[in-house]
Specification:
Blueprint (H helix, E strand, L loop, with lengths): L10 E5 L2 E8 L6 E5 L10 H7 L4 E5 L17 H15 L5 E5 L1 H12 L6 E5 L10 H8 L1 H4 L4 H13 L8 H8 L5 H12 L4 H7 L9 E6 L7 H10 L4 E5 L6 H4 L1 H12 L4
Parallel strand pairs: 3-4, 3-5, 5-6, 6-7, 7-8
Antiparallel strand pairs: 1-2, 2-4
Length: 280
């Protein structure tokens, strides 16, 4: 398992929702792939997959506003609506007209909104355990969303314990301690604690309700990957989503929970490479 604590994004762009940290792997001239992370994660979860794909692609990675090493600020708009706009801005900044897009969890909804509402064009789309179909959000997630102002006042030690337990539950076999530390660290200082509850408070299902009826109009090659042991979003949602998108292929990943990138990176990478390298 690659813990790779040294993963670092070296570039910054100012977006409509604050400064965004990003980077690029691979050589110029190769087919571009953009990786989108979910919540409450960052580009760090893509490190192994990104480096594998970079052998044959230019790979773009980024931390969404309010996540990872990107800006976290009081009053910041980190909703799905905002992230969809920011992603569209980034594609323009990078000069990518039809990239390959791979998106996990919340990032799946971001990629879908950018494509269906903002005209972002993709050569192909791979969705990994995405937030896409109602209803979504665990009982814990909904509870925190309804009382974010209360949870934000938790003493740091209690907040840290809650975040660690929550992130741990995204993995089926369990996370390496160093990986878990890296995933929770951005949320543990003062701005991070506020940002953790802010992103949950703004995670409104209406942002997927707005696009769910449009999935039948997706006309690009689409792969839906899903961890068979996902306790956050049941694998049945993956089959349901694949059935709604014309021609979509469904790829279950055995032994993986919601964080497929951590639980089964080799299996996920193999599925993505097979999909991205087929004639599209």
């Amino acid at each position: 398992m690659a813990t790779d604590i040294g993963w670092k994004l070296t570039r910054t762009i100012n977006s409509s929702s604050g400064d965004v940290r990003w980077d690029r792997l691979g050589q110029d001239g190769r087919p571009p792939v953009v990786l989108l992370h979910g919540t409450p994660f960052s580009s760090y979860v893509w490190r192994a997959v990104a480096r594998s794909l970079a052998r044959d692609h230019q790979v773009f990675v980024w931390d969404m506003p309010g996540y990872g090493t990107s800006e976290k600020a009081e009053g910041q708009d980190v909703s799905l609506a905002a992230q969809g706009r920011v992603f569209t801005e980034l594609l323009s900044h990078w000069g990518l007209e039809e990239p390959l897009v791979v998106a996990h969890d919340f990032g799946g909804a971001v990629a879908l909104r950018a494509h269906l509402l903002h005209g972002a064009r993709y050569r192909a789309l791979a969705l990994v355990d995405p937030v896409a179909l109602a209803p979504w959000g665990s009982p814990f997630f909904r509870l925190v969303g309804e009382h974010a102002d209360v949870f934000e006042q938790l003493p740091p030690a209690l907040h840290a314990a809650l975040v660690r337990e929550y992130v741990t539950s995204a993995s089926s076999p369990g996370l390496h301690p160093a990986v878990l530390d890296r995933l929770v660290t951005p949320w543990l200082d003062g701005p991070g604690q506020a940002a953790f509850y802010r992103q949950i408070a703004q995670a409104d299902q209406r942002y997927t309700d707005e696009i769910q009826g449009r999935y039948s109009g997706i006309g690009i090659p689409t792969l839906v990957c899903w961890g068979q042991d996902d306790s956050w979003i049941p694998v049945a949602k993956g089959r349901e989503l694949a059935a709604l998108i014309p021609g979509a292929r469904f790829e279950p990943i055995a032994g993986a929970g919601h964080l497929v990138q951590e639980d089964a990176p080799a299996e996920l990478t193999a599925a993505l490479i097979a999909f991205l390298q087929q004639p599209l």
